[in-house]
Design brief:
- Chains A, B: Residues 199-202 are annotated as: Aspartate.
- Chains A, B: Belongs to the class-II aminoacyl-tRNA synthetase family. Type 2 subfamily.
- Chains A, B: Residues 144-447 form the Aminoacyl-transfer RNA synthetases class-II family profile domain.
- Two copies of one chain form a homodimer.
- With 447 residues, chain A is an alpha+beta fold.
- Chain A has helices at 61-75, 124-129, 131-134, 138-160, 199-207, 247-277, 293-302, 316-330, 381-390, 399-402, 419-426; strands at 16-29, 33-40, 43-50, 81-90, 99-110, 164-165, 171-172, 184-187, 190-194, 212-220, 233-242, 290-292, 334-338, 351-352, 355-359, 361-366, 369-376, 412-418.
- The first copy, chain A, has two domains: 7-110, OB fold (Dihydrolipoamide Acetyltransferase, E2P) (Beta Barrel), CATH 2.40.50.140; 128-426, BirA Bifunctional Protein, domain 2, CATH 3.30.930.
- The longest helix of chain A is centred in the middle third of the chain and has 31 residues, at 247-277.
C-alpha cells in the first residue's frame, strides 16, 4: 500500500515528516504562499507551500524543484488525487484541525478534468448524474459510514442470537407479492421475475427448521411512482423467526435491533451527525408505543385530518399525523401501528383468532414515515390456502410456496425494512435518493 | 415467544421440568414404551413415553390424558413440528447426549404430510426440489451456520479497517463484464440488465474517495453451463481498496480475510465439521504461495498434463494439477496464480509497467478450484480507453464508467469471490448446489 497517514490520525502525531494522500478540495494560490486543502476518507488537512515563483541566477537543483512544486500547485485542478510528503506542524492558529503540512514533494496521481460538472447548489438530479463526485462531500460519505455501522450492529444481534444469514434468490419463477410490481427477465427459453422481497424464502427457512434467519439484500419493485420514498431497487433488511406467539415477539426483536443499531451509530458518529446534519441522534427507549390501527385512525381524525382513502389503510399524511401525536404524547420518534385490517394485508399474514377482519401485523412508523412491515405468518396450510383464495390468488401458482407448509412448520413471523428510509429519517434527509448509493427509479438507470 | 429450551442447552440443566420444540425426526412406537427423536436448530433429543394402550375400568382423567398422548405419538408423522413439556433426566445410558425428556404434554403444532417426498439417498436434483426438507438435515443446515460465521468474520475485518459497506444496484443500463452472459429485464418503456458483478460500482466508490468498500450480494450470469461450479445467480463477496501499489496489496487483504474467516469457522464449528463432513479444517498459513501463471503452466506441463486450450488460460484440470503441486511442495491448500496474460483478462485490469502482455492480476485457487479473481485496476483514463478499444469494446457505451476516471481517482484494486465455491471446497462438497441456499441454473428456478 502507498504509505500514507490518514488525515484523522495526524493530530496524534508529533511534528515531523508525514505522507498524506487524497484529493484536492481547494487551492488558494497566493503570490508568496500557496494553500491546498487535501481531503481523504477520514478528513481534511491544510497543506502549505512557500511559493518559489522564479529562479535566481545560478539556482541549484533544490530551487528548481521548489519552482516545479509551486507551478504544480498553481496548475492543480479541484478533485485531482495527490500524494504529498512533507513536514507536519501543529499550529493552533490553523483553523482546520490546528495543524498543517508543509509540502516537501507533491505527486499528482490522477489529474481531474478542471471543469467540475456539479456545484454545491446543483439539483438533486444533477448530483445523481455525478454521484461519484457528490459522494466526495463529507456529509454524503458519512451516510454510508453510518449505514456500515448500523448494519454491522444489527448483524451482531442476529449472530449473537444464533440466527442464520441467508442469501435468497432474486430470480423467481413467479411473484412473491403482487403481479403489478413485477420485473420480467428473459431467462434462457423462458421468463423469470425479480424478487419483490425475500418473503417466501425466509419463510422456507422456518419450514427447514433454521429457527431464525436474516438477510440484507436487494428487492425490486416495478413501481412507476416518483415519490421521495420509493425506488425500483432498494436494500431490504429482512428477518424471520420461529416459535413466535404473535407479532408481539416480532416487534420485540425489531426494537432490540433498532436500539442496537442506533446505539452503535450514536456512539461512533453522533458528533459528526450533529455537525453535518444538525441532528442530535437519540437512541429510542423501549418498548416503542403501540397503537392499533383503528385507534390511530381515530386519533388522526380527532386531530382534524380526514384520510382520503376508501380502504382501511393509512396514508402518508395520516402517518405523519399519528407520528406527531406520538411525539407530543410520549416523546417518542417511533410507533408501531398494529392489527391492520385483513383487507389491506397480504394473504400470508395471520389473522386474529376470533376476528378474521384483523391481522397479527404491524407497520413501524419512524419520524412520520413507514419504514417497515412485520407480521406473524399464517402457518396452517388449510387457512393459508383459504386466505390466498380470499385475495383472488390462484393457489396453483403458489404450489411451491404452499408446499413449505405441508410437511410441518413452526409458527413464525418477521419483518422487512427499507434501509434507505431508516437512514433518510435518521438524518432528516428529504429523499431516499440521498441515502441510496446509486438510486434506481423509472427514469434512472445511470450511472 | 414460545417458552422453549434449545436442545443444545439441555445438557447444562438439572433434572426437572423443561419444554422443547422442534420437528419429529423418528418415532419408535414399541408396545410398552414410545421413543421420539425431536430435532430443533441446535440438536436432537430423545423423548420417551411409557405407553398407555388402554384404559382400565374407572380410569381417571390423568389416565385418559396418558392414553391420548400415547395415541398422538403413535399417529405422529415424520417432520411434524411439536412442542413437548416434560421431565428432563440425565442418564448416561442414553446414547443421544446422555439425557432424555419424559413426555408430560405433547402439542402437535403442525402435522406433516406423512408421505415424505425425499429420502437420504435421493438424487441431488430431487433434494433440490424439496430443498426445505433437505435443509433439515444437520449437515445441510450446518453449511449455512458456517456461512453466517464466515461472513461475519470477514465483515469484522472490513469494519475494523474502516471500509464502507455499499449496496450497488443490480439493475444496470449496460454490461459490466461481457455482453454474452447478460440477463435482460423489461424496464418500463426500455431495457435494463442484471449486474454480472459490482465491478464498476465498487470502483466508483474509489473515485468518490471512500478509500475502501465491501459488499456481499447477488451477481447474475446468463451462463448456460451445467458444471458443478456455475450458477446463474450467486452470492459474490466483493471488496475494493484505494492506494494500492499493485495486486500484492489486494492479495495481502485477501489473505487476511481468509484467515479471519477460517479461524472463526474452525473455532465455532470445527468439531461439527469434522463429525459431519469428515474434514479437519485448517486455518491457512500466510503468505499463501504465489506462482506466476506462466510458471504454473510450465509446472503443470512438467507433470505431464497438456492444457487443451488455444488461449493463455488455465483450465479446470490445470488448476487441480497446480493445486496438487502446491499441496505436495508447500503443504498449502491455497495458491495465488499471478500475472495473468492481458489477452485473457478484462480491459480494466492494469497491465505490467514495461510489459503490457501481462496484468497486475491474480486468481486464487483453493483445493484445486478457482474461487476468486483480483487485480489492480487501470485508473489512468487514456490507458483505460485504449485497453477497452484493444478488447473490441465501444468506449461510447462505457461513458458513465469512464467518467469515474476523469475527475481524479486514486490507484486501486480489489477482488470478487464466490461464496458458494469457498464453502464447497472448505467442506469437500462436490457441487455449489449443496452450498447455495436455493440454487439457480438454466433449468432451475424453483422452489
Amino acid at each position: 500500500m502507498i504509505n500514507r497517514t490518514l488525515v484523522k490520525n495526524l493530530a496524534a502525531l508529533p511534528d515531523g515528516p508525514v505522507t498524506v494522500s487524497g484529493w484536492v478540495e481547494t487551492v488558494r494560490d497566493q503570490k508568496k504562499v500557496q494553500f491546498v486543502i487535501l481531503r481523504d476518507e477520514s478528513g481534511a488537512v491544510q497543506l502549505v507551500n512557500p511559493a518559489t515563483r522564479e529562479l535566481e541566477e545560478g539556482a541549484d537543483a533544490a530551487a528548481s524543484a521548489r519552482l516545479a512544486t509551486t507551478e504544480a500547485i498553481s496548475a492543480l485542478s479541484h478533485g485531482s488525487f495527490i500524494t504529498v510528503s512533507g513536514e507536519l506542524k501543529h499550529d493552533e492558529r490553523v483553523k482546520l484541525g490546528g495543524l498543517e503540512v508543509k509540502i516537501g514533494t507533491l505527486d499528482v496521481v490522477t489529474e481531474a478534468n478542471p471543469e467540475t460538472p456539479i456545484a454545491a447548489d446543483s439539483s438533486l438530479d444533477k448530483r445523481m448524474d455525478w454521484r461519484f463526485l457528490d459522494l466526495r462531500h463529507p456529509k454524503q460519505a458519512l451516510i454510508f459510514r453510518i449505514q456500515t455501522t448500523f448494519l454491522h450492529a444489527l448483524r451482531g444481534v442476529w449472530v449473537e442470537k444464533g440466527l442464520i444469514e441467508i442469501h435468497t434468490p432474486k430470480l423467481m419463477a413467479s411473484a412473491s407479492e403482487s403481479r403489478a410490481e413485477l420485473f420480467e427477465v428473459d431467462y434462457f427459453e423462458g421468463k423469470a421475475y425479480l424478487a419483490q422481497s425475500p418473503q417466501f424464502f425466509k419463510q422456507m427457512a422456518q419450514a427447514a427448521g433454521f429457527g431464525g434467519v436474516f438477510e440484507v439484500g436487494p428487492a425490486f419493485r416495478a413501481d412507476p411512482s416518483f415519490t421521495s420514498r420509493h425506488a425500483t431497487e432498494f436494500t431490504s433488511i429482512d428477518t424471520e423467526i420461529s416459535w413466535v406467539d404473535s407479532h408481539d415477539d416480532v416487534m420485540a426483536l425489531h426494537e432490540e435491533l433498532m436500539v442496537a443499531g442506533f446505539t452503535a451509530v450514536k456512539e461512533k458518529h453522533g458528533a459528526e451527525i450533529a455537525e453535518l446534519f444538525g441532528v442530535e441522534l437519540e437512541v429510542p427507549a423501549t418498548p416503542f408505543p403501540r397503537i392499533p390501527l383503528a385507534e390511530a385512525k381515530q386519533i388522526v381524525a380527532d386531530r382534524g385530518y380526514v384520510i382520503p382513502r376508501a380502504d382501511d389503510d393509512m396514508d402518508p399524511e395520516g402517518e405523519r399525523q399519528i407520528s406527531a401525536h406520538v411525539k407530543e404524547t410520549y416523546g417518542h420518534d417511533f410507533v408501531f401501528l398494529v392489527d391492520y385490517a385483513s383487507s389491506i394485508r397480504p394473504f400470508y399474514h395471520m389473522r386474529h383468532e376470533g376476528d378474521p377482519s384483523l391481522t397479527n401485523s404491524y407497520d413501524l412508523i419512524y419520524n412520520g414515515v413507514e419504514i417497515s412491515t412485520g407480521a406473524q405468518r399464517e402457518h396452517r396450510i388449510d387457512v393459508l390456502v383459504e386466505q390466498a383464495r380470499d385475495k383472488g390468488m390462484d393457489p396453483e401458482e403458489l404450489e411451491f410456496y404452499l408446499d413449505f407448509f405441508r410437511y410441518g412448520v413452526p409458527p413464525h413471523g418477521g419483518f422487512g425494512m427499507g434501509l434507505a428510509r431508516v437512514l433518510m429519517l435518521m438524518l432528516g434527509e428529504q429523499s431516499i435518493r440521498e441515502t441510496t448509493y446509486l438510486f434506481r427509479g423509472p427514469t434512472r438507470l445511470l450511472p
